[in-house]
Design the sequence.
């Protein structure tokens, strides 16, 4: 039987501009950082509606931040700038691999687990979604 130390994080190799880039899933710490930085992502993950304009406003920055985190550079401005300057096709390839490794069973089961955990901890899902110092998004 394997122990925690014996488990190596899964990685995937993605071809980008003739180079092989190793990506991995984003850790809980990395996801927490991303959700704190991008409240719209947190809203999506908790089943709240987000306006298209809000997603468009953060889209490029959020994608670059996710790619940087999945390549081992969470919160690194230089890595995010490089990720943000890649072609849309390269970003899609990297993002797809990172999301597969971060949430191998998909977003639905992950949200279900968070909801169940909130119930165990006696935290309402809406309280989990609002646990941020960020102001609430504007409504039309």
Sequence:
């Amino acid at each position: 039987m394997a122990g925690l130390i014996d488990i190596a994080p899964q990685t995937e190799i993605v071809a980008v501009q003739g180079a092989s880039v190793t990506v991995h899933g984003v850790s809980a710490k990395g996801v927490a950082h991303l959700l704190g930085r991008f409240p719209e992502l947190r809203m999506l993950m908790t089943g709240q509606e987000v306006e298209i304009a809000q997603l468009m406003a953060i889209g490029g920055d959020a994608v670059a931040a996710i790619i940087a985190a999945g390549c081992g550079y969470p919160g690194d401005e230089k890595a995010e700038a490089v990720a943000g300057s890649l072609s849309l096709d390269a970003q899609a390839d990297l993002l797809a691999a990172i999301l597969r490794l971060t949430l191998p069973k998909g977003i639905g089961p992950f949200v279900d687990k968070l909801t169940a955990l909130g119930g165990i901890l006696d935290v309402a899902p809406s309280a989990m979604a609002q646990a941020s110092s960020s102001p609430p998004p504007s409504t039309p």
